[in-house]
Amino acid sequence: MSIPCRKVFSETILEEAKKDASIMVLCTDSRGSVMIGDFADELPEQFVEVGIAEQNSIGIAAGLANIGFKPYVCGPACFLSMRSAEQIKVDLAYSHSNVKVIAISGGVSYGALGATHHSLQDIALLNAIPDIKIILPSDNYQTIMLTKELLKEEGPVYLRMGRGAVPDIYQEGDSFQIGKANVLMEGEDIGIIGAGETVYYCLEAGRKLKSGGIHATVADLHTIKPIDKDTLHSITRKVKKLIVVEEHSINGGLGSIISSLYSEDTAVTVRKLALPDTNMVTGSSNEIFKHYGLSVDNIIKNVKELLKK
Fold first, then answer.
1. Which end of the chain, C or N, has fewer beta carbons within 10 A?
2. Which residue pairs from 212-216 have beta carbons closer than 8 angstroms and sit at least 24 positions apart in sequence?
3. Is 242 helix (H, G, I), strand (E, B) or coil?
4. Rounded to 5 degrees, what angle do the CA atoms 111, 278, 240 make?
5. Is 260 left (phi over 0), alpha (psi -120 to 50) or beta?
6. Contact assessment for residue 288 and residue 111, using Cβ atoms and an 8 Å cutoff
C-alpha cells in the first residue's frame, strides 16, 4: 500500500497510546502535516499542542520524560532539528531523556516551499551529538515496525520521514531491528546503500543492473546512528566499491559517515550521490531529485562508471 509514512506512524502511535496512557504526543502547530488529528481527537489528554515553538516542545517533552511519560514530539524536520539543536543536545542527549523526535517532511519533501523548508543538514548536525539515535524508515511497513520498536528503546531518538506516499519495499511480517541494516539484494560487483526514501531507487537500480548482468548488493541502512558497521564490513568483504544515495547535503550525511569509516581502507571506494552544497533550485521533490541525479538512471550510470575504474 503506497501511503505516506507519516500517516502510518500516526495510526500506529494512536493504537499503542490507547494501550499505554504514558505515551504523550506533542505537536508544533502541525497536526495536519503530521496527520495526527485523530490522535488529538481521540486522546486529548495525551496530546499537547505546543504551537510554533519547537525549542519549547523539546523542553516540555524532556520534563514529561523525567516524570515517567513517553513523549513523542512531532513536527517538520527542518524546524525540529535546526531550531531545537541546543535543546536536543542538552535536554535530550546530555540528559538521556526518553524522548522521541518525529521529524516529518524530511529532505526536500516540501519541494516548492524552498530552502527554508528543506532539511538537508539535520543528519550532519545530530550525528555530531552523542547519545541520540537517528532512524530513516523507507516505507510504511518499516515505519510501523520501527515505531513499535521505539516503544522499547530508552533514550532519545530522531526518526525522520518524508512527506509523500512511498512505494512498498517490504511486506507485512518483515522484521526490523534498530541498529541493524537490511540487505535487500546480494551481489559481488558493487554495493548500493540507501536510507529513507532513496532505498526504493537503490533497489530499482539494483534490479535493472541485474537484468544487464551487473550484480549489486543493495542495503537499507535505516539506522544511520549508530551505524551498522558489521553489515557494512560484511558487504565490503565481497565488494570494494560502494555508492551511497541519500536525501541530504553531500556534506555530513550517510555518505560522509561511511566514507569516514573507510578513510584508512584504501581498498574501498565510496562514491556519494547526494544533494549539492549550494542553494538549490525550487520544484517538486521529484523534480529536485531528478535535477540533482537522485534517480534510478543516474545510480545505474554511476555504477557503470565506478566499475570501469
1. C
2. 214/187, 214/189, 214/190, 214/303, 214/304, 214/307, 215/186, 215/187, 215/188, 215/189, 216/185, 216/187, 216/189, 216/190, 216/191, 216/192, 216/303
3. strand
4. 95
5. alpha
6. yes
Residue type, 133: K
| CATH code of domain 182-308 | 3.40.50.920
Chain segment 22-70, per-residue pLDDT in tens: 999 999 999 988 999 999 999 999 999 999 999 999 999 999 999 999 9
Instruction: Assess whether the region 5-160 and the region 182-308 belong to the same CATH fold.
Output: yes
**Peptide bond connecting 71 to the previous residue in cis, omega within 30 degrees of 0:** no
Q: What does the domain layout of the chain look like in residue ranges?
A: 5-160, 182-308
CATH 3.40.50.970 fits 5-160, yes or no: yes
Buried b / exposed e across 149-158, counting CB within 10 Å, b at 16+? bbbeeebbbb
**Tens digit of each residue's pLDDT (9 = 90 or more) over 116-168:** 999 999 999 999 999 999 999 999 999 999 999 999 999 999 999 999 888 99
Predicted confidence (pLDDT) per residue in 295-309, tens digit: 999 999 999 999 998
Q: State the Cα–Cα distance between residues 293 and 276, nearest whole angstrom.
A: 10
268: left (phi over 0), alpha (psi -120 to 50) or beta: beta
- Local structure of residue 104 (DSSP, 8 states): E
